[in-house]
Specification:
The protein has 662 residues and is an alpha+beta fold. The chain is built from 15 helices and 24 strands. Helix 4 runs antiparallel to helix 5 and helix 7 packs parallel to helix 9.
């Protein structure tokens, strides 16, 4: 009965998603219901951005129409939903699944579906989610505790590496994931509340959070501990932003303040960033996903509590990452062992890990850093990650996934959890469901605002209604970015207003591969961005990475940006051993790769020489429409699209037989 019921639910969800493109109404949500904290910049909420983009909209729709339903069926087949019912006494049986954090797959699917509801409200989908939420509620214990495997049988964790002593709660927080489960619960519940205004999921999260507040802390009778896998910190802060309950903020800080404190608990070590106090850490180490989730929480605390020590730490950690530990694709985490950052400049290609979850977490962190400062460098990292090392984790059919994202393949090394191409699922399915929770939220990255300025952070066709200075400013974009650099932006105020419009000039258009000195272009692009306002060419002055237009906006104004694109050759810092004597290729924000399927006769001979001449061609029938690079007899495709045509060899870095090409 249970299986039949959930397959029906999955079908209901997908049928609703198929109607989304016809829905244009927007749901009003209370103004004080917002994730905006005390940042210098406020992201323009996804609620007010309608995406029409030919690049991002198909990817989002693919997740909505295929990936979510696919994942719902997978989690039902593997018993994720049964676990809640067994924990609640509504079914009999043992724990199903192989991981102590399997509960979070359900939470992340609800979070992604909730972001979809924000973009396109739909009562039928909302009701379907209510059914899932009622199943989750069944598994929650009376005091708010919610980790199903421990409720079902605390003596038999699903994974052998979760140690059990007396079978009590919280006894092995290094790996039990009890607090990690809670963090994803809070993140999902906050998104669902914002999307629907309903409190059913939020109440489950708040009941659990109240238990955490009672359980952990420095008071007598409380447990002195920190989570092994971070994310509860940002989740608690999201609940604080909704409820203004300072206990949640206090607990988030408690968990961060006591990492690396040997007088507080037995340390988990570098793997969990628990080797020294967070304010003393200046090198990104250990499990990359745990790390960037923690850094995001630290950034929240730095802002909310104006904590200079926290801010200094996160900026130092960021500098270390982008200068010494980031791949050309924006990927992070070099090592399969421990899913971890390597040593400085340890960036192997064939064995690169670059977990999809780490790319997602890094976007979350960089977005927070940009909100604090408005500095363009953080969105340069976001853009590079989005177009390359993040969406590479999802196949073009929306139903296969990379857990790691290698930069080279020999066609035999099974880097992807036992496969050398994308898999249809994993025992540890954190990456597929993290893609689901993240991708529908992308429209919320496009714009930001301060008291005196509107920022255009990403380029994608859309229409946005931006509440700004006691009126609504409509900003719209039309563009074929990233395939070409032409962007038309229309600004239409309801009434005359003076403000700055700050248009981000992408790092690649400013001759910066990434902030810092880890990568550089082999030659400088001399062409500058061109700007036209209402048909008249204007002088383009770039200030701190932005084209700044400070004027009185009195009527509809059309701005046309032209970011010149050319094929760029990228060199790595000589300290990156695997990239010495090699070059990678870019066009606009896209990193390119060569695949054996396009270069069957000469793959091993691929090299860049002084005679290499590139041509760029948009091939609408290849890989759902991409720009390809052709040079001599070779062909390169966007890195994110590799391994969609079967198993074969691939390279991002090619032999460089020339220096200082012009």
């Amino acid at each position: 009965m249970m299986k039949k019921k959930m397959v029906s639910l999955a079908g209901l969800v997908i049928s609703v998603f198929l109607l989304f493109s016809c829905k244009e109404e927007r749901k009003e949500i209370k103004e004080n219901d917002t994730d905006v904290l005390a940042y210098h910049l406020e992201p323009v909420d996804i609620r007010h951005v309608k995406l029409t983009d030919s690049f991002w909209l198909p990817i989002i729709e693919r997740v909505q129409e295929k990936t979510i339903d696919y994942a719902l069926n997978k989690v039902e087949e593997e018993g994720r939903l049964d676990n809640f019912l067994i924990a609640g006494g509504q079914m009999e049986g043992d724990v199903k699944g192989a991981m102590p954090f399997d509960d979070t797959d359900v939470y992340k699917i609800i979070e992604g579906a909730s972001y979809s509801l924000i973009s396109a409200p739909n009562d039928t989908l909302s009701t379907a989610l209510d059914s899932l939420i009622s199943i989750i509620q069944t598994g929650q214990e009376k005091d708010g505790y919610l980790t199903t495997w421990r409720t079902i049988d605390p003596a038999k964790p699903p994974a052998s590496w979760v140690k059990v002593n007396e079978g009590k709660r919280w006894e092995y927080l290094a790996m039990s994931h009890e607090l990690y489960n809670a963090g994803h619960l809070y993140e999902a519940a906050a998104a669902h509340y914002r999307a629907t205004g309903k409190e059913n999921f939020l109440n489950i999260a708040l009941k659990n959070a109240d238990l955490m507040v009672k359980t952990f802390g420095d008071q007598e009778g409380q447990i002195h501990a920190v989570p092994g896998h971070q994310i509860i910190e940002t989740g608690l802060i999201k609940l604080y932003s909704i409820t203004e309950n300072k206990d949640y903020l206090k607990l988030a800080r408690y968990f961060l303040d006591n990492r690396g404190n040997p007088d507080h608990h037995e340390l988990f070590g570098e793997y969990s960033q628990d080797h020294e106090p967070v304010t003393q850490q200046d090198e990104v180490v250990g499990h990359a996903v745990r790390a960037v989730y923690m850094y995001a929480g630290m950034t929240d605390i730095a802002t909310l509590q104006q904590d200079s020590a926290y801010y200094k730490a996160v900026t130092s950690l960021w500098e270390n990452m982008v200068n010494k530990k980031m791949y050309i694709t924006g990927g992070i985490g070099a090592k399969h062992e421990g899913e971890a950052f390597g040593e400085n400049y340890e960036l192997p290609n064939l064995t690169a890990y670059n977990e999809t979850c780490a790319a997602i977490g890094d976007v979350y962190w960089n977005h927070r850093l940009h909100n604090i400062t408005g500095e363009v460098k953080y969105f340069d990292v976001i853009e590079r990650t989005l177009y390359n090392g993040l969406i590479s984790g999802l196949s073009l059919d929306g139903q296969k996934f990379f857990y790691p994202n290698a930069l080279e393949s020999d066609g035999t090394y099974e880097f992807n959890q036992g496969a050398c191409t994308r898999k249809d699922w994993f025992d540890c399915s954190c990456c597929p469901t993290n893609v689901i929770r993240f991708i529908p939220s992308i429209p919320g990255l496009i714009y930001s605002k301060s008291e005196s300025a509107i920022y255009v952070d990403l380029y994608a066709s859309n229409t946005a209604d931006i509440e700004f200075q006691d009126q609504v400013i409509q900003v719209s974009q039309k563009t074929a970015y990233p395939w070409n650099g032409m962007v038309e932006i229309a600004v239409e105020p309801q009434k005359p207003a003076e403000f700055e419009l700050k248009l981000r000039v992408p790092g690649w258009a400013r001759n910066e591969v990434l902030p810092g000195n880890l990568y550089q272009y082999s030659s400088k692009m001399e062409e500058m961005p061109e700007v036209m306002v209402n048909g008249k060419k204007m002088t383009a002055e770039i200030v701190d990475g932005y084209l700044v237009m400070d004027r009185k906006w009195e009527e509809s104004t059309t701005i046309v940006l032209d970011f010149p694109m050319q094929v760029r050759e990228v060199l790595a810092n000589d300290k990156v051993e695997d990239d010495r004597g090699k070059v990678s290729l870019e066009y606009g924000p896209i990193v390119y790769a060569v695949e054996e399927v396009d270069n069957k006769d000469n793959f091993e001979q691929l090299q860049i020489t002084p005679q290499t001449n590139f041509s760029v061609q948009f091939e609408k029938d290849l890989l759902q429409g991409v720009n390809t690079l052709k040079f001599d007899d070779f062909k390169a495709i966007p890195y994110y699209s590799w391994s969609n045509r079967g198993i074969g060899k691939m390279k991002v870095w090619l032999k460089n037989n020339t220096k200082n090409r012009t």
